[in-house]
Design brief:
The complex is a heterodimer of chains A (about 500) and B (about 525). Chain A is mainly α and about 500 residues long. Helix content of chain A is about 75%, strand content about 5%. Chain A starts with a helix and ends with a helix. Chain B has 21 helices and two strands. The radius of gyration of chain B is 23 Å and the shape is globular. Classes of the chains: A mainly alpha (about 500), B mainly alpha (about 525). At the A-B interface, helix 5, helix 6 and helix 7 of A face helix 18, helix 19 and helix 21 of B.
């Protein structure tokens, strides 16, 4: 029993609350302080993490005993790097926020802090009801962040975002309650703990409809192909620091839910719906890639490419193969790590193109800003999973897993690997080479604020490219029990 | 045998004076308030009478807590009234709503036009009716309670005597309320006809033994009684009066009706269906489930198009009644607990919302329109936050009591094998996002920005205007409304994070009806 995770969990929210009461100028920096401190704690946690040691840093307390909801947190090979990713990426996001002058900065900082706490809570929770609480809580700060500081159509965008995602979340709420209640033996005390629920064996029929409700919530969040309607508006309208964390971190909560909840608790349904989910994954890959290729808005290039990337992750998960799962978790971390600097780069490009984020207004910047160009190139190559990058290993594992279980889907998905290089290279070319945009100003990355924020992320990408085993060793997507039951069911 | 002997042979009902003391406090309070209001002068009207009202309600709360007991019900007046945790807990909700209404009404036009004593006297009378209703033990006291509750409300709705819409609202409520009462009375008479008993436990006993559960007389009676109570609880399709009456009535009265009347209606629905008629649950549950679904859909869809906050809250109240009805349908102890829990939560979030509406409608040219809230987040966060919390809670976001309440209701439906009703609650919540979030968007995300006259511009920041801004817009000018609003919003958050105190209450309530499993 330790409160270690609780400290990481509530530090950002506390910093956000504190930011409400400091002078306006300091609000953003208070948030930065909180997120850096949370990152420091998370790094210490990583250092003390015992590989293969099961659930660690466990906190398990009663919260609402009448409903069987426990305040139960823990870290294992599945969520370790996702917690790290969250704390890591909130730092550049909050620095990017602090560097700009916003209307009502104190409230901005508060919601950013609350958002980090909610995301961390969803990753750490070891109780289904607690997970649902944090999963839904996430929406509140993002609703305000997009709605109050977004672009022209922000109210429309944020309403659409919340209605889409909360529709999914509410279905999940019903499913979660039903799962807990139906798993309780007659006369027993209700429990939502993942460990307890994994031992309850629901009938196939109940598993099927529960699966569909959970899948709706998680696929909306990701977003995956038919449920991505909120994405273009939200990506265009959200302020940059917000969309950075949303795309890099929040989108992972959905796919994480499949690994943490759906596969272990509903194994029979997971096998039953495997083909459906693989089909969604493959369609997402192809659809996202094709649309990413045809977008002019730089943010939408990343938005649609995220659909494709999350399609890969989904593919790995529903290969129902340990290798695929491991690749999926690795890819969650990798994708977050590359998408965050890409959004920062869009911000830097926009500053040099009269604030416009359209590719038509950029171009020809490589010679005038060589450092920016090389940073961009590194990140772009990592995104398209160049051999030698950690993303390459991740995608390879995913495809290995898929080939082993459903070879057809693996073959079609391989096309996505090629398409990724097509849209990323187009993105790079249009922004960096090509004709010089009409109002492009030259000027390389400023040494202090701009490079200071992005360089650490790029260094991590490079380091992981050299030593991807650092991730692979520690990641453990499926618990042994889950794996056994999946193997047994597949036969 | 002489007449004297007959009289001597009649056993006078035993009265437990300790048990009945809260009722004495409010009913006696009503009389005292009316008498005190005869004193002329500003002090008596502005201070003394409201103070006496608060004192009566405070005394009732104290006496209720003194009377608190768990387990099976204790008779107060044998065969007519009894107390149990259900009655006591829900009476606490009536008293709290009464206190909030005093604060809301203190500066209202209604109070000036109808007279302070009359207004508060009627309110206390109505609360007395609710208490009788919640603790009634037989069909006759049930009807007495519901009439005592309703008749003062008809008058209160019309208490802004110089405003036509207020009078219209009172009249409408009177006509429709009377139809509802008549339907209910007819139903009660048929239930009596079928079972030969008026006491709830006697009815329950009779249905189990001498009366067939498919007896058409009994079923018709149940249907009519359900329809009559559905009028009071504004359950669709008997809800049509709700938006009109809520909009026309003075807003403090609307708040009182929305919270207290609905709670009272659910008190008796719970008692009638889960105590007296629980043995025929198989017969009425599908019908009530259908009503719940219709109510959820109709309420949520109706709320979407509203531009008046009062009408919107009326429709949202219809939808919320649908959620709570789901807790009644399951007919289990867990369902009873969840419904009682949700009623308490419903009080907090609605009073917070109504407080803001009242504070705004007094100063804004848009009245209770949603436009009166435009830009409130920048101009007056102290009002915008409670409204935001109330809306998030009504929509069922976590970290608010509304989330826990919905969670509880859904788990009760699944536990009682009514999982699809739980899914309906969820579907309703999805639709409700459209209108709850619009209120938040209007307060925080309106793009309009101008400089306000006579206000020095703060450096580096423009002040966002509040539509229809006027000097009194300052919420500090209405501290009593602000206080209630803030307390209710704080309670919404507090019980969303630490719900145990409410759970203990709900648990006690759950033990009060011995008929449930």
């Amino acid at each position: 029993m330790t409160i270690y995770l609780s400290i990481i969990l509530f530090l950002p929210a506390a910093a956000g609350l504190l930011a409400m009461f400091v002078p306006r100028r300091l609000a953003g920096w208070t948030l930065v302080g909180g997120s850096v401190l949370a990152l420091a704690y998370a790094i210490v946690m990583l250092a003390r993490f015992k590989t293969g040691g099961g659930m660690q840093f466990v906190t398990d307390d009663n919260w609402i005993s009448e409903l069987g909801i426990r305040y139960s947190l823990g870290v294992d090979g599945l969520n370790l790097f996702l917690i790290l990713l969250t704390t890591l990426l909130w730092v550049p996001a909050s620095i990017a926020m602090a560097l700009r002058d916003w209307d009502r900065p104190r409230l901005f900082a508060f919601f950013m802090g609350l958002g980090e706490t909610a995301v961390l809570g969803a990753f750490m929770a070891q109780d289904l009801a607690l997970f649902v609480v944090f999963f839904d809580l996430m929406l509140v700060p993002f609703y305000f962040l997009v709605g109050m500081w977004g672009g022209e159509d922000r109210v429309y965008a944020t309403t659409k975002l919340v209605i889409y995602t909360l529709a999914g979340s509410l279905l999940m709420l019903a499913a979660a309650v039903a799962l807990g209640v139906m798993s309780t033996p007659e006369g027993g005390h209700i429990s939502f703990s993942f460990a307890t629920l994994a031992h309850a064996h629901l009938s196939g029929g109940s598993q099927y409809w529960l699966f569909l409700l959970f899948a709706a919530a998680f696929l909306v969040k990701a977003p995956a192909f038919p449920l991505h309607g909120w994405m273009p508006d939200a990506y265009r309208q959200a302020p940059l620091p917000v969309i950075l964390v949303f795309s890099a971190v929040v989108s992972k909560v959905g796919v994480y839910g499949f690994l943490r909840i759906v596969l272990p608790l509903l194994p029979q349904a997971s096998v039953h719906f495997q083909e459906l989910m693989l089909a969604i994954a493959v369609v997402s890959i192809l659809y996202g890639s094709v649309l990413a290729f045809s977008q002019d808005d730089a943010r939408l290039v990343l938005g649609y490419s995220s659909i494709a990337q999350l399609g890969f992750i989904l593919l790995g998960i529903f290969s129902l193969d340990p290798k695929g799962g491991q690749g999926a978790v690795m890819q969650m971390f990798n994708h977050g790590l590359v998408v965050a600097p890409l959004f920062l780069i869009i911000g830097y490009l926009a500053v040099r193109a009269e604030g416009r984020e359209s590719l038509d207004w950029m171009g020809g910047m490589a010679f005038r800003a060589p450092v920016l160009a090389s940073v961009f190139l590194i990140v772009a190559l990592a995104t398209l999973a160049m051999p030698g990058s950690s993303n390459f290993i991740g995608e390879l594992y995913i495809l290995f897993g898929t080939f082993q279980s459903k070879i057809v889907y693996g073959l079609v998905a391989s096309v996505g690997v090629v398409l990724a290089s097509v849209y990323m290279i187009r993105f790079f070319q249009r922004a960096m080479h090509y004709r010089v945009g009409p109002h492009v100003e030259s000027g390389d990355l400023a040494l202090g604020p701009e490079l200071g924020v992005i360089a650490p992320l790029v260094l991590i990408i490079l380091a992981l490219g050299v030593y991807p085993n650092f991730l692979l060793h520690r990641i453990n997507a499926f618990a042994p029990a889950t794996n056994q039951s999946l193997v047994a069911l597949k036969r | 045998m002489t007449t004297l002997h007959v009289i001597a042979a009649v056993k006078a009902p035993v009265i437990d004076y300790k048990g009945i003391s809260p009722l004495f406090a409010v009913a006696g309070g009503a009389v005292i308030v009316l008498l005190a209001a005869l004193i002329r002068g500003r002090f008596a009207q502005r201070v003394l009478v409201p103070f006496l009202t608060v004192a009566a309600l405070g005394a009732a709360i104290g006496l209720t807590i003194w009377n608190w007991h768990t387990g099976p019900s204790k008779p107060i007046i044998e065969g007519a009234l009894s107390t149990d945790a259900l009655a006591l807990a829900l009476s606490l909700l009536f008293y709290i709503t009464g206190l909030a209404t005093v604060a809301f009404a203190w500066r209202s036009i209604a109070l000036r036009e109808a007279g302070t004593g009359e207004f508060f006297g009627l309110m206390l009378g109505s609360i007395a009716g609710m208490v009788i209703l919640a603790s009634s033990e037989n069909l006759v006291t049930l009807f007495v309670g519901i009439e005592l509750l309703s008749i003062p409300l008809y008058v209160m709705c019309a208490s802004e005597v110089r405003r036509a819409t207020s009078l219209e609202s009172g009249l409408k409520y009177l006509v429709i309320g009377s139809v509802g009462s008549a339907t209910l009375l007819y139903g009660l008479a048929l239930i009596y006809g079928a079972t030969g008993a008026t006491g709830f436990s006697a009815i329950n006993h009779a249905i189990g033994t001498s009366v067939n559960i498919t007896d058409p007389l009994l079923l018709t009676g149940i249907a009519l009684a359900a329809a009559g109570l559905a009028f009071k609880a504004s359950v669709a399709p008997f809800h049509a009066w709700t938006p009109d009456v809520y909009e026309g009535a003075p807003t403090p009265v609307t708040a009182f009706m929305a919270v207290a009347t609905k709670t009272a209606a659910f008190a008796i629905i719970l008692r009638l269906f889960d105590q007296a008629l629980v043995t025929v649950q198989v017969q009425w549950a599908p019908a009530l489930a259908a009503l719940a679904v219709i109510t959820i859909i109709v309420g949520n869809v109706g709320a979407i198009a509203q531009s008046s906050m009062k009408r919107m809250l009326a429709w949202s109240g219809v939808a919320q009644a649908g959620y709570m009805l789901a807790g009644v349908v399951v007919g289990t102890k867990l369902g009873l607990q969840a419904t009682a829990f949700y009623l308490a939560v419903y009080l907090f979030m609605n009073l917070a919302a109504f407080g803001v509406v009242i504070a705004r409608e007094r100063v804004s040219e848009h009245g209770d329109g949603i436009k009166a809230l435009e830009g409130l987040g920048g101009a007056s966060p102290v009002l915008a936050w409670p409204m935001t919390i109330a809306m998030l809670s009504l929509a069922g976001f976590p970290a608010t009591a509304g989330f826990i309440g919905k969670f509880y209701l859904i788990s009760a439906t699944v536990d009682g094998n009514w999982a699809w009703l739980g899914v309906m609650i969820v579907v309703g919540s999805m639709i409700s996002l459209v209108y709850y979030l619009r209120v938040i968007a209007v307060m925080w995300m309106t793009p309009l920005r101008i400089e306000l006259p006579g206000r020095p511009r703060r450096p580096g920041r423009e002040v966002r205007p509040v539509a229809g801004w006027s000097p009194e817009a300052d919420p500090i000018r209405q501290p009593e409304v602000l206080l209630v609003t803030l307390v209710m919003a704080a309670a919404t958050i507090f019980f969303g994070i630490v719900p145990s105190p409410l759970f203990h209450l709900a648990h006690d309530v759950g033990n009060s009806l011995a008929t449930l499993l």
